[in-house]
Amino acid sequence: MSEQVRNDPGTKRERRLAAQLAAKKAAEAKRRRQAMLGAAAGVIAVVALIGGIVWLADGGDDDKQPTASTSASASAPADQPADQPADQPAPGQLPPGTDPALAKKPTVAAGKGELSKLTVTPLVKGKGPEVKAGQTITTNYVGVFYKDGKEFDASWNGGQPVSFPIGVGQVIKGWDEGLVGVPVGSRVQLDIPAELAYGNDSSGGRPAGPLRFVVDVLAAQ
Fold first, then answer.
1. CA-CA distance, 92 to 5, in Å (whole number)?
2. 220 Cβ neighbours under 8 A, 6+ residues apart
3. Among 141, 146, 192, 216, which one carries the catalytic annotation?
4. From the candidates 146, 166, 213, 216, which is the catalytic residue?
5. Phi and psi at residue 166, to the nearest 5°
6. Is there a catalytic annotation at residue 152?
7. Which one of 50, 79, 87, 152 is the catalytic residue?
8. Are the beta carbons of 221 and 159 closer than 8 angstroms?
9. Is 213 labeled as catalytic in the residue annotation?
10. Can 146 be counted among the known catalytic residues?
11. Separation of alpha carbons 184 and 129, rounded Å
12. Which of 11, 97, 174, 183 has the highest CB neighbour count under 10 A?
């Protein structure tokens, strides 16, 4: 190369521009590499965070203690639901000494004639203590209309007995008056005139007129 070419101002400017362009490209390449590394680090952090959340949700310990609901289920008898009160017989289960007849839903027929007063008819006499006013009793029952025997309610359809206070105005008068004094373990038939049941007005959806119930008294306390 001649001395004239090396000292040519145009040639020097071109070299400077070329060097500046190369430096700019190198800087852009460096920024892209840094951006890619930052994105990769973000992904790794998110994966780690998700993994930590899953671990915490799972307890983070293979030897974790059972929850309260697990303990309750484990402590209940196999044939008794976990939410079944301890003093209430499970479906199909009778207290010891109860007549086996009370394990089967009774067939309840219609009444005969006019019903003018509460009538209590023992069907199975229990051997337990007599029910006292203020106690909570556990029962199975079937309710039908006295005149035609059509069923309108039965605890048997729900699969388990029901409990309620007796003799304190929490149920219809026919039950309060008819079940106090009945021995536990009994099955009784209650023929209840309308005035001791729900009256003669059916507008509220309640059974109107005289009613007949067959009630099993399974427990009282």
1. 113
2. 128, 129, 131, 132, 135, 136, 137, 138, 166, 184
3. 141
4. 213
5. -125, 145
6. yes
7. 152
8. no
9. yes
10. no
11. 6
12. 174
CB 121 within 8 A of CB 188: yes
Joined tokens for residue 212: 């007949």
- Amino acid identity of residue 134, one-letter, is G
- List 166, 191, 198, 216, catalytic entry: 198
Nearest alpha-carbon partner for 211 in 167, 202, 220: 202
- Retrieve residue 18's tokens: 């070329």
Give me the catalytic one of 172, 191, 192, 216.
172
Could you tell me which residues come within 8 angstroms of residue 86 by beta carbon, excluding any fewer than 6 positions away? Answer: none
pTM: 0.59
Per-residue pLDDT of the chain (221 residues; tens, 9 = 90+): 444 444 555 566 667 777 777 777 777 767 776 666 555 444 444 334 334 333 333 334 444 333 323 222 222 333 333 344 444 444 456 888 899 999 999 999 999 999 999 999 999 999 999 999 999 999 999 999 999 999 999 999 998 999 999 999 999 999 999 999 999 999 999 999 999 999 999 888 899 999 999 999 999 99
